[in-house]
Design brief:
Order of helices and strands: EHEHEHEHHEHHHEHHEEHHHHEHHEEHH
Largest sheet: 6 strands, parallel
Number of strands: 11
Structural class: alpha/beta
Radius of gyration: 26 Å
Strand order of the largest sheet: 3-2-1-4-5-6
Shape: elongated
Bound molecules: coenzyme A
Strand content: 5-15%
Number of helices: 18
Number of domains: 2
Length: about 400
């Protein structure tokens, strides 16, 4: 069946998380993703294993809809096969540490020379230029250096990492946009180009509203923050909404770790909330009858809502507030989500089979295209498609494949 990216062939050298999330999305949308692994394989295959000798969930959840081949890029015959693949692919992707591509002999100028039409996409911690360019990076390093840690957490607590993998997966999504844009430009110019996403830059981009607040501080305090003491940088905001409307996580019964409802008090819903939780008296209370007053008395307002919520579960409170059109959402655990009917209906948690691990689940594709339905295929075993790709895609005969294997171009 025709898919959005049918006919696009990706030579995917990426490993760990930042690159593989991007190539997996491209695979979901129909690209033929050929994952090139070193003879040892992507390190995540063996990391955080739950089942002995089976590819870990760390690997399987990030590498669906790909074919795997092994190639030793430090072996002359391995380099030869790789060069042939560069000639017939549309995109080559990598997220190696600084200098690795140069050492392998496949820097952008070389790749561009081999195939002027190919798009080359790289994730680097900090880009290829600048004082930080030589540093390696992982998720939390990028979160730290992109401004996320300093703005996440409670005001009087330490900086906190966020559970969303904004440094790795967030960068992968940015890279995907860059690749698709470069492919569109190639349609007009016939030329490929180099796409680079630095994890630090992408985290900064995802923290964009914190930079809004950084500059607003020059003109006075940020009135929407519950804590009104400021220095000259954007502070941690706890669960404050951080937007034009006030919001916070309200504790509900029975008081477990995730028994909270996140409630946004949109200006237009205040009267309905006030009437529901405090009747006429609250409706006329001058501490809350205007957004400016509510900002000033924010902590008292949240306390009133918390007192009201103590009689209800997060789901009951959600029903009450939805009836009066208040934007709100329960804090859902991974267990809640794994069993959620809405999640199932959206195909966001799908069951797959795997030769080594049996039944397992992967998250679905969050990008829904009406003419390109996503068919999620399990992650490949290491080198599962080496013979297939060499013969079908590159036209090698069986004895040539055997000779290359013998010469150490690949192991599986
Ligand atoms: C993630 C990271 C820190 C891992 O560091 P690392 O384990 O030392 O891995 P590197 O990418 O630096 O190096 C990979 C090595 O494997 C080798 N290698 C990779 N694929 C190979 C192949 N197919 N054949 C032979 N060798 C291969 C490389 O040549 C390199 O060896 P070298 O150091 O002798 O040149 C690093 O890759 C990095 O900073 N990447 C960019 C930022 C990023 O994406 N981080 C997020 C990861 S989720």
């Amino acid at each position: 069946m025709d898919k959005a990216l049918s006919g696009i062939r990706i030579l995917d050298m990426t490993h760990v998380q930042a690159g593989p999330t991007c190539s997996q999305l491209l695979g979901f949308l129909g690209a033929d993703v050929i994952k090139v692994e070193s003879p040892a394989g992507d390190a995540t295959r063996k990391q955080l294993r739950d089942i002995p000798d089976a590819d870990s969930l760390y690997f399987t959840m990030l590498n669906c809809n790909k074919r795997s081949i092994t190639l030793n890029l430090k072996n002359p015959q391995g380099k030869e096969v790789f060069t042939k693949l560069i000639k017939i692919c549309d995109v080559v992707m990598e997220n190696f540490g600084p200098g690795v591509l140069d050492r392998l002999g496949f820097a952008w100028n070389k790749v561009h020379e081999i195939n002027p039409r190919i798009v080359m996409a790289s994730v680097k911690g900090f880009g290829t230029e600048g004082p930080y360019a030589a540093f390696k990076a992982y998720e939390n390093v990028a979160q730290a250096m992109g401004g996320s840690l300093s703005t996440t957490g409670l005001r009087d607590g330490p900086p906190l990492v966020t559970g969303a993998q904004i440094g790795d997966s967030g960068t992968g999504v940015h890279l995907m946009a860059g690749i698709l844009a470069a492919l569109l430009q190639r349609q007009r110019t016939g030329r490929g180009q180099y796409v680079e996403c630095a994890m630090m830059d992408c985290v900064m981009n995802l923290c964009r509203v914190k930079w809004r607040d950084h500059q607003r501080l020059e003109h006075g305090p940020l009135t929407e923050y519950a804590d009104q003491e400021f220095e000259d940088f954007t502070p941690r905001a706890g669960n404050d909404s951080g937007g034009g409307q006030l919001g916070n996580a309200v504790q509900c019964k029975p008081g477990g770790p995730n028994d909270y409802l996140y409630v946004v008090i949109q200006e237009q819903v205040w009267n309905a909330i006030a009437e529901r939780i405090g009747g006429e008296a609250l409706l006329n209370d001058e501490r809350f009858n205007h957004i400016t007053a509510r900002r000033q008395h924010q902590n008292e307002m949240w306390q009133l809502l918390t007192d009201f919520a103590s009689d209800y579960t997060k789901w009951e409170l959600m029903t009450i507030l939805n009836e009066i059109n208040v934007p709100c959402g329960p804090i859902l655990s991974t267990k809640d989500l794994a069993n959620d009917e809405h999640v199932k209906l959206r195909e966001m948690y799908v069951e797959l089979d795997h030769p080594e691990r049996g039944k397992w689940f992967n998250l679905g594709c969050p990008i829904k295209l009406s003419d390109s339905p996503v068919d999620i295929k399990r992650s490949p075993l290491l080198g599962e498609h080496t013979d297939e790709v060499l013969s079908e895609v590159l036209g090698y005969a069986n004895d040539e494949v055997a000779a290359l294997r013998q010469a150490g171009a690949f192991t599986r």
